[in-house]
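Each letter names a residue; the fold follows as tokens. Both lines appear below:
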Amino acid sequence: MSEQTKLIAGIQELVMRILKNGSVTEEEGMAINTLEDELFKQNSFQPSKEKHGSLQGEEIATLFFNKQIEEGITKLIEYKISPEDFFGFVEYHYDEEHPDEALIGMFTQAFIIDINDRHRLKLI
């Protein structure tokens, strides 16, 4: 499990605990802030140097949205983002308030498997 995956899992666990309890303690709030600070240091959350998206993960997602699969995989490798981290970024970052949220439906299990396979082959 990558560092990014662990951070997202930690945030999700805290959020579920807060929802279950109906309120947030000061410690839980500080813990979420600490985890998010670390999460935003991960490669998927780094600023993009390209025109597509403000974050590297958004840039890659935009390439995939536009059916530029090979370019997206090349960017995964260039930015040192694993498919696991990219799809974790997508799950965490794209919510109902994000303008591209409806597009992430294309990231089906079959698509994810295909990207993992292509990524692995490109690394060889």
Notes: The helical segments are 3-21, 26-39, 56-65, 69-78, 83-93, 109-123.
